[in-house]
Amino acid sequence: MTDEAVADRPADVPPRRGGGRAEDGSGPGGGRGPAGAADAPGAGGSEDAGGSGGSADDEAAEREKERERAADRFKDLTRDPLAQEEGEEEPTDLAAATRARRSGQSLFSGRDLTSFDRSHIDHAHIGDLNISLDARRSGPLRGGPVPREELRRLRRTHIEPEGYVRLRRALAARRLLVLGGAPGTGRTCTALALLEEVTRDGEGAGDAERVRRVAPEEGVGELAREVAGGEGGHRRGTGYLLKPAPGRPGELPPDGMDLDQLASALAEQGSYAVLVVSVGSAANPLLAGRYGQLCPPAPTRELVDVRLRERLEEEHGDQDADGSGGPLAGLLERAARLRADPEVTEAVGLDDLRPAEAELFASLLAGHLLGTLGREELLAGCRGLAAVQAYAWFAGVDRALAAPPPGDDRTPVRSGTAALFHPVAFRIALAVLGGASYSAVSAAAHLLTWELSVQSDPDSTPARPLFCDDPEADLALSRARSATGAVDVAGVEVAGRLVFYRGGALPAAVLAELWDRHFPVRAPVVRWLRLLADDPRPQVSMRAAVAAGELSVRDFEHGYAELVRPLADAPTPRRRMFAAAALDQAAGHASHRKAVRKVVDDWSRFGTPSLRWTAAMALGYGRSADSMDDTLDALARIGIRDDGKQAAVASQNVVRLLTHPESAAVLRRLAEWTAHRAEEYQDLALVTIIRLALTDVDEVLDDEPGTPLGDRGDWPLLVALAATRPELTGRLADLFWTALNTTRSRDVAFDALETLLRSAFRKDGRPWTREGLAALLPALVAEEHDRRRLDWLLRRMMRDQDRPLPEEQARALWRLAVPAGQRRSDEEENHD
Hints:
Blueprint: H1 3-8, H2 35-39, H3 53-77, H4 94-107, E1 123-126, E2 129-132, E3 144-145, H5 148-157, H6 164-174, E4 176-181, H7 187-200, E5 211-214, H8 219-227, E6 239-242, H9 256-269, E7 272-278, H10 284-288, E8 292-294, H11 300-316, H12 327-339, H13 342-348, H14 355-369, H15 375-394, H16 399-402, H17 417-433, H18 438-456, H19 471-477, E9 480-489, E10 492-501, H20 506-517, H21 522-533, H22 538-554, H23 556-568, H24 573-587, H25 590-606, H26 609-620, H27 628-644, H28 647-657, H29 663-674, H30 679-694, H31 697-700, H32 717-724, H33 729-740, H34 743-758, H35 770-780, H36 784-798, H37 807-817, H38 826-830
Parallel strand pairs: 4-7, 4-8, 5-6, 6-7
Antiparallel strand pairs: 1-2, 3-5, 9-10
Helix pairs in contact: 3-34, 4-22, 6-7, 8-9, 11-12, 11-14, 13-15, 14-15, 15-20, 17-18, 17-20, 18-21, 20-22, 22-23, 22-24, 23-24, 24-25, 24-26, 25-26, 26-27, 26-28, 27-28, 27-30, 28-30, 29-30, 29-33, 30-33, 30-34, 32-35, 33-35, 36-37
């Protein structure tokens, strides 16, 4: 430290201990600054002892008032910068926010939204079966007989799901079966297989048209008249497959009397019928009646095996007659290894495949094994499975609203939009909030349902169904699952019901489909995300911020103009934190990192106070500047500007950077700031040091548990670093000693030291942070007056009327801090 720097330093800041020695990370050494003994609690000296008379007393009193004002201002700087809306006594839960952000990022880990491309897999040809997965090419089913060839193929390839026999017996007994399931789960194939089997030996066994599809618009009543022999009636012993068309909003499904009438007509004609319906509130009465049954999911793993073998046998024939195998056996072994390949599994990104997906997946594997598909084509095809599912979910959802009733020239009736939009709103909410509680996802889905309904028909107030939710249907229609997990409530974790997509590829696929192909939906989604930004629950607001960042990557111009920039300049810290997290998520993509860094740099230099605050939060994540030095430069610019008004938020994000591998560089910069001639730099360093002692690891660490720091989530970061990074202990002790020996920061620093000491033991007496304190305390109290100060603090803690420190723990702390050879007397040893 230069003499000039010492001369310009304010009087209450002591020289950094060690006499300017090189910061090599070794233990404390050298002399302490003279201010240490003077400022130590219980010390006999005083800066004001030297004058006499009234003028001296007035001058001393004025200096004391100035020190008190400086100390009060310093306390303000160490308060939570996010607690503006919560009040001084209720700080925000940074640990919950960090966990929620980490969970939201895991939804898109390895899934860049720009990687989704459906062009490879619109359809696939497998043997004599052509599979189309493109919703644009699938129109309404036409009525008519099912061709013999399709029935033969069905007999040869259909794999019975669990519970199939039960369904067959129910159909044979009642003649009518209402089969419920989510679209794409194999319910139609199961229905055809049931009808083919029950009519095979019946009255219509010799009829080439014994299984027929019924046009969806005919409905149950019209089918009953046909079966009874009315106009267009068919022969006895026929099996009918009916998939009722999605009802227009407000249209009622068939009731029990309609079904009884159809069942009676079927029995008279010796025929059978299966109605295939989607699970949901509208179909629940049908499925709960005497004819209703849930369709079990198709065994797609076995389906992949069968289809794969079929494709390979087409090229290489069956195994040799002696059972030795041949080329086919080798291909099957390679196929098994290829299916288990982590890269292939990650590319598919679905926990379970649906029948059409299973057949396509088998085709892709076979094509690669037979040399017709390269590795990249295979992976591209696998990645497209989730993209096609997302496309099918959103294609033409509101088509029913735009069309007038059949044969009616009147304006379309648009009531019931909420019921129509709720399934897609739930899928979008799950893509954004996956891993949150079911109640949070469901509530968000209802908010979005309202926004979509208003956007669709702005002149009408949409109805809001109150008792039509069906959690099981929500999960089935969205390929989702629920699980018991931890939910953050008021700073504590409690058990809750969490909800996830059944596949890591679906969240990114849904957002990519939504943002790229449905531009009119952007406006209501943006309004909805802004509502989520105001949600006081971090599990909602931070997950939504991560999703907003992903959407901004898809179209940065739109995301920045509609989401990031307006919220970054908002008056509330919660919205600004949302914008910062969204920017950081965009910075995680190499394609947008340069743009984000330019935005953050401009805000840190030329922005409004709100924009500088947001920039500081984005910088703390560590990806919004070119290097650690650039990050610290920007945070210093923000922290010292306007007499340090934003030192609180700047210091908090400097602390966050200390969890990064480059923490040594951060500590070096803090040491430079303490030696700076400008008081604003010194305050920024001192506030950061104290915040480092008061911040738990969970509040700032982005890593999952399992890392050295992650396993100490409830430790103060200062002692956690001392325990896990021993090479930093000397620097940490030097900096904290400076805060303890600086007049304006002394009181807050001593409160922080007391907090650290109390963290050594849990309430039940078990060790807690002793390992870190054992590393830090000897370096912090290496000299005599430091030990006297620790002795004074321990005695004060023992005499605390509200939380007296047990004598045994006080002794243990003293022994941790002071080696036996340095203890002066039994009186010190026993703390009498």
